[in-house]
Amino acid sequence: MSDLQGLESTITSAIAAAEDEAALEAVRVSALGKKGSVSELLKTLGSMSPDERREQGPLINGLRDRVAAAIAARKTALTEAALTARLASERIDVTLPVQEGPETRGRIHPISQVMDELTAIFADMGFSIAEGPDIETDFYNFTALNFPEGHPAREMHDTFFFAPDAAGERKVLRTHTSPVQIRTMLAEKPPIRVICPGRTYRCDSDQTHTPMFHQVEGLVIDKSSHLGHLKWILEEFCKAFFEVESVKMRFRPSFFPFTEPSAEVDIQCSRKGGEIRFGEGEDWLEILGCGMVHPNVIRNCGLDPDEYQGFAWGMGIDRIAMLKYGMPDLRPFFEADVRWLNHYGFRPLDLPTLAGGLSS
Ligand code: 2NL
Q1: What is the mean pLDDT of residues 146-166?
Q2: d(CA 204, CA 210)
Q3: Mutation pick for ligand 1 pocket among 217, 254, 286 (CB with most ligand atoms within 8 Å)
Q4: CB atoms within 10 A of CB 162
């Protein structure tokens, strides 16, 4: 056996004996590396006579090519063997609890959830959504809404006023979302069908009142909308929101400066077993105020009350959220306690849909 054949069989055995990639790499370096046995042989070609080189060249180059091919083949075989071994040894333990990522750990605040639900219900009835500034002028918050000069809501102890500006104007933190509807009436031509959800502010703080709270108001203005339409809309809303087939409603005469006539609305409920349920029972619970928009308000928005009429209503979002989801206290809504949010909050994918029901 020639030296070359001896070397080849030594290397080939070493390749076959390599049990892993590291061992194979060591064989490759010892044969084809810079100072490897095959590389050293290749270097000898340079000092050979032309005849010798013609004879030895193909032999040494052939050896190098076969060694390289054998190493590549062994590498593929080792990789496949390693994968097969991993597949055989690794099993997924499906009984382990799923690790929650940040996107599933987060919770939607009940106020946001209820706002989404309200929006879905009224959007389905053809209402659009309008928003406006929290800091309002006296005109949008009071004057346009037919509040008389000495009305108690215009007093410091009921409403948050800013210090007068250079022009002597006292801005206010809006006490209701009605200014957004005033802005809508001033900006758009009837027919108007809009709901305005948002933050509102009053100087009030106890177990059932927080200085900042949330309201949603609705407004319809056209030439012929009347109390019958209002009653239907509110009934459809209550059925959809509280997810009941039917609910009795009671309209009690009331007073607001911006509506005439005005009513407070109660819905049928049962309070048996310390639990409140809607659409059944003999009890009543007040949930909103409403009325036909006062002609002065229509006039204040540049519309002719002999041509246009409509109705409006308003309710507290925090309050209906507490009622629907059984939360006993209002204050934790705004305390940013993650334990409370974990308990009462909603998962990011709990989107309200009208097709599947809001709670499904
Ligand atoms: C309540 C009562 C109400 C309105 C809000 C309104 C808005 C305009 C014109 C006329 Cl622009 N009315 N909004 C009407 C009646 C009642 O809210 O108890 N809210 C918590």
Answers
A1: 84
A2: 6
A3: 217
A4: 11
